[in-house]
Amino acid sequence: MDEQSGEEPRWTRRQIVGGSLAGVSVLAVMALLIVGLANQGVGTSISDALEAGERPDAPPIDLPVLYAGDGIGPEGADITLDDLRGRAVVLNFWASWCTPCRDEAPLLEAIAQDYRGRDVVVLGVDTQDLSDNALGFISQLGLTYPSLRDGTDGAQRDYQVTGLPETFILDKQGRIAHHHIGPVTIPEQLTQPLEQIL
Asked: For residue 74, is the peptide bond before it cis, meaning its omega torsion is within 30 degrees of 0?
């Protein structure tokens, strides 16, 4: 009680708001700590898992063949990653309108040629594109490795692709062993991690 007036002390609006904000902040910090402890050791993305030295399972793919090759086909048939178990996969996300994709395609073709017969398949995933433009791209560059058609961009989302091109190397068990962001400019960017898993 206030001794001079005989009234109970009143809280000011500022004190009430400040106290409420402090309480909410404490609860938010506690919630973050609980979530952090619950997810301890669990990668939040493909990149996080790879940085931690893990090989996360590759998200499943079930897409139609846009261009057949290396025993993958016929065109229009659906292919899954499970169909490729036992082979290492160089999985390259690309589009015909992507200039860096055009620049790296001859390197991917050379890698596909060099690794034929070694349980390795270079596999393109055409995304954000028109099929006719993609087939024109393949024809103009004389590519022989197969490509799938990601017409809904679902595979691109599942692999957390942030820009084109991006390339993943999957081991023979279907786990992601390497992720290369941006265009491949020298073969060793892919051949070194490939050799580590073969």
From this structure: yes
